[in-house]
Amino acid sequence: AGVLAAHKITASSPDTDLPTVSGLRKMGVNFTVSNKDTVKSSDVLFLAVKPPIIPFILEEVGPDIEARHIVVSCAAGVTISSIEKKLSTFCPTPKVIRCMTNTPVIVREGATVYATGTHADVEDGKLLEQLMASVGFCTEVEEDLIDAVTGLSGSGPAYAFTALDALADGGVKMGLPRRLAVRLGAQALLGAAKMLLESEQHPGQLKDNVCSPGGATIHALHFLESGGFRSLLINAVEASCIRTRELQHLADQEKISPAAIKKTLLDKVKLESPSLSVASASKVSLFTNRSKKN
Amino acid sequence: GAWPRVAMEASELWVGFVGAGRMAGGLVRGLLQAGKVPASNILASAPSDKNLDAWRELGCRTTHCNLEVVHRSTLVFLATKPHILPGVLEEIRPAVGSHHIVVSLVAGVTIQTLQRLLPPWTKVLRIMPNLPCVVQAGAMVFSRGSNAGDEEAALLKSLLSSCGLCEEVPESYIDIHTGLSGSGVAYVYLFAEALAEGAVKMGMPGALASRIAAQTLLGAAKMLLETGEHPAKLRGDVCTPGGTTIYALHQLEKGALRATVMDAVEAATNRAFDMAKN
C-alpha cells in the first residue's frame, strides 16, 4: 500500500526456513531471529504469534518494552487486560492495542477492528488505524465486540471460500469449465459486495432488484431459503464467536495445551505456520507533532 | 324495451349481486361503508334466504330471481360458487345487454370462459378480492375483458378503492393474487394464532395475547404501507445488536419460515391455476 518503506519494517521468527521468511526478505523487510532486536528497532510492535504463545513472547520481550512502544496484538481471544497485566511487571504504563483483522489484508481488502488499552492514547489508535486502513477497512470498536467481529469478518473469508467452492461446483455441474466457474463465482461475490458497500440500499432491496418476477433468480433463492441458508450463516457467525470466547476463557485460565507448551521452547521453536511478521514504524511521521526516535 | 341510459355516477348506479355469499357480502359491506352506493340501489339474489337476511338488514333489496337482478342493475357482480356459474350464465344470458357491466368474483373462472358464456358484446371484468374488504382493508386485483374499456375499469376502481387496495392487472396475475392475498389472509391468521400461543406458553392470558398479536400485525403492516421502506430495512431497524429480536429471528430462520411461506404462496397459486383449468 506504500504506507511504510520496507526497510522500516523488521520481522522476527525463530524458524528461518519458513516460506514467509524468504518472501519478506525479498520485499526488503529486515529479518532477524531475535525478537528482542525487533522490539528495540520498532515503535509499533505487532504481535502476530499464535495465542498460546503470547504469554511467552511477552515474558521474553517485556524487559525491552519502553513507554514509547505501541504493542499491537492480533492474537484471537487474547484480552488487552491479560497483555497489560503481563507487561506491567516490566513497564508501568504499557500502550496496548488489540486488533482483529482478516486474511484479505494480503490483497488490501482486509477488515480490521481495534480496541485501545488503558494507556494507549487516541493518537496511538489513530496511528494504527491509518496503518491498517491502508490494507482495507479499519475502525475502532469496544473490546467486547471483538469476538463477534471474529465470528463475522475474521472467519468470514472461510465462509466465502466455501460458498465459492460450492458455486463453482454448481457451475461445473451445469457445464462450465472449473477455472471459469471459479473466476465467475468470485467475481460475482466481489461485484455484489462492492455494490452493497457503494449503495445506500439495504441488501434485501438489492436482492429484490436482481429478482425478476418468475425468473431464474427467484427460483434459485427459494432453494436457498428452503435449505435454511440464512440460518446457516447466522449459526456460523455465532459458533465462531462463541468458540473465540471459549478459547479466550481457556487462555485466561492459562490452560495452555501441552502441545503448545512444547512449541514455546525459546531456543528451538518451530511454529507450524507463518506467524511472524512483527513490523515497526520507526521514523515514519504520520503525525507531524509526533516525536520520532532517530 | 328501451333500457335506461347508463349513469356512471356511483350514486345513481344500480348495482346487482348474483349470489350473496361471504365474498359478495364483504364487497357490499365495503361499498356501503364507503357511502358510494346507497343500499336501496343494491339488489342481491340467492336461492335461499339464509344469506339474504343479512343483506336486508343492511338495507339492500333482495330477490330469489337472478334475472331480476340483471334487469334492474347496470353493474352486475357474479358471486356464485364456481360450479354453479355456468348454469347461472345460461339463465341470465338473454337479459344481458351492451349497457351492462358484468364483474365476476368467481374464483377460477377465466375471462375467456365468461365471454364464451355471455353475449359477445358484454363488458366483462374479473376481480379477485379478499375477505378484509369487509373492513375496508381489502386487497383486490381485477382484469378487463375484450369489451371493457377505460371507463369501466375506472368505475370499478373508484367504487372498490373504498374497500381497500384495488389494482388492475393482467389476468395471469389473478391466480398469484389468490396465492398471495386471497389465501394469504389465512396465513396471517395462522401466524397470529402461533404468536399468541407463544405468549400463552410464556404466561400471558390467551385473549390478551390474541389482541396484541393482531395489533402487532396491523401496526407492522401499517408501517410498511406508510413508510414505503423495504421490509428488510424495517426488520433491521427493530433488531438491536444482541437483543431479543435478533434472537427470535434466528429461530425463524432456523425453521426456514421464508421458504415455507414461499411454498405456501406457490401451492395456492398452482392450485388456483389447476382449478381454473378444470
Automatic annotation (TrEMBL), chain A:
Pathway noted in the entry: Amino-acid biosynthesis; L-proline biosynthesis; L-proline from L-glutamate 5-semialdehyde: step 1/1
Species of the source: Mohoua ochrocephala
GO biological process, alphabetically ordered: cellular response to oxidative stress; L-proline biosynthetic process
Binding site for NADPH: 35
Keywords linked to the UniProt accession: Acetylation, Amino-acid biosynthesis, Mitochondrion, NADP, Oxidoreductase, Phosphoprotein, Proline biosynthesis
Name listed for the protein in its UniProt record: Pyrroline-5-carboxylate reductase
Alphabetized GO MF terms: pyrroline-5-carboxylate reductase activity
Family of the protein in this entry: Belongs to the pyrroline-5-carboxylate reductase family.
Annotated binding of NADP(+), by residue: 13, 48-51, 74-76
Record EC number: 1.5.1.2
Automatic annotation (TrEMBL), chain B:
Protein's cellular compartments: Cytoplasm
Quaternary structure annotation from Swiss-Prot or TrEMBL: Homodecamer; composed of 5 homodimers.
Family annotation (PROSITE patterns): P5CR
Protein name: Pyrroline-5-carboxylate reductase
Family note: Belongs to the pyrroline-5-carboxylate reductase family.
Keywords for this protein: Amino-acid biosynthesis, Cytoplasm, NADP, Oxidoreductase, Proline biosynthesis
Xref: PANTHER family: PYRROLINE-5-CARBOXYLATE REDUCTASE, PYRROLINE-5-CARBOXYLATE REDUCTASE 3
Domain Pyrroline-5-carboxylate reductase catalytic N-terminal as annotated: residue spans: 15-108
HAMAP family: P5C_reductase
GO MF term list: pyrroline-5-carboxylate reductase activity
Annotated Pfam families: F420_oxidored, P5CR_dimer
Domain Pyrroline-5-carboxylate reductase dimerisation: 171-272
Membrane-spanning intervals of the chain: none
Catalytic activity, EC: 1.5.1.2
Its job: Oxidoreductase that catalyzes the last step in proline biosynthesis, which corresponds to the reduction of pyrroline-5-carboxylate (P5C) to L-proline using NAD(P)H. Proline is synthesized from either glutamate or ornithine; both are converted to P5C, and then to proline via pyrroline-5-carboxylate reductases (PYCRs). PYCR3 is exclusively linked to the biosynthesis of proline from ornithine.
Pathway listed: Amino-acid biosynthesis; L-proline biosynthesis; L-proline from L-glutamate 5-semialdehyde: step 1/1
